[in-house]
Sequence to fold (457 residues):
Amino acid sequence: MIAAVERFATRTTGLAERYMPDAFVFALGATLLVIAGAVVVDPAVRAAPTTLITAWGGGFWSLIPFTLQMSMTIIGGYVLASSPPVRRVIRALAGLAPSPKGAVVGVALLAMLTSLLNWGFSLIFSAILAKEVARRRPDADYKALAASAFLGLGTVWAQGLSGSAALQMASATSMPKALKDVVGTPIPLTETIFRWQSMTCVVIEIAVVTTLVWLYAPSNGVGAAALGIDLTDDEAPLPTPKTPGERVEHSPILLLPVVALGFAYLGLRIAGRATSVPDALNAIDFDSINLFFLMLGALLHWTPASLMRAVKNATPAVWGVLLQFPFYGGIFGVMTGTGLSHAIAGLLVRSVNPTWYPASIVTYSAVLGLFVPSGGSKWVIEAPYVLSAARDLHVNEGWMVVTYDLGEALANLCQPFWMLPVLTLLGLKAKDIMGYTFLVALVLFPVVVVLVTLLRP
Fold:
């Protein structure tokens, strides 16, 4: 069986390498497909085509705040993962790989576990880990290692502390106005990512994916050297300061007070909202998570010089976000500025009953995620009718947030957008790893459908 799964994974990877375009092509194709859909379902668009053009242009820059938040999540994750203490942990973990298969499985398991803490940190931590493992185990398949580094974002990340939909719904202050006006009452994290059904889904998903990775990981893989990829460590020691200005850059004297200020602010922010443990958890949002990781990374880097180098090295990993998010904003504008989104939602709601409603939302969320690969912004589109229909069908609203997140994560296995930070650091392209991620999606999708149906509160 192991050999058969290995052969299947190799074939799917070969097909992806031959036919898979760059992630940006996905954005362009999705734009044209959504425009065509709006023309078909919305008579107003057919009567006045300028409506469609205005909707696309109006949405193009609508995700600027979210784009910066996502970019800082990636940068903050890199700053923390590249700090000397965390680097030492990564090197120690890389040395534990017992075999080529074990190396690929170990990276996948750690990618999933760290994604529960923060998806940006997981992406960079796992990519650096995969690169370090490839140095220690040149017989491990480099493409399979890269695919494993991404599996956190393709499986359980949204059920963790950086799950965007759950964080948006957790409190009135973190809920976007578009949701607040329609949805109203916040849904605390204890009703979403911290409910027992959600945690059960996480455990089962990790077990299924870990087993699958063990089955498909090549026993004797193609290493980085055979692919012409240089694995030279880019974190050489900083040069010795020679001038007074350089000595300030290499001293913690100015950085540490600012780090203390950042942690003090976070403490006050949580204390101001928290009268209990659930309230403290509900105080978590994108901005506080990003600030925490940036301040913790700065503390571990210790000096401004080391911190600045980490941020500089992280910036290539965000170019895809900066280029592609405006185009996804345009898709967002078309879907919300025409009747397309409501037409799809109406069809969905009319065709289901309470039992199958979670399964239908998983499917819809995964499909829509192929066109708008952005958990937070896409939830703004979906939440009003998803939660409204949940009320009408008497389905728990918190469970529908969990269900949405599970479907959103599955889409990442088939959409190369969020692979870009990992691929940039590892010197690969999406087509090099999507054969593996497609296979994971193929196996995991029916598992998730069964889970959200059987565990529905």
The mean pLDDT is 83. Residues 2-230+252-270+290-454 form one domain. Residues 314 and 328 are 22 Å apart (CA to CA).
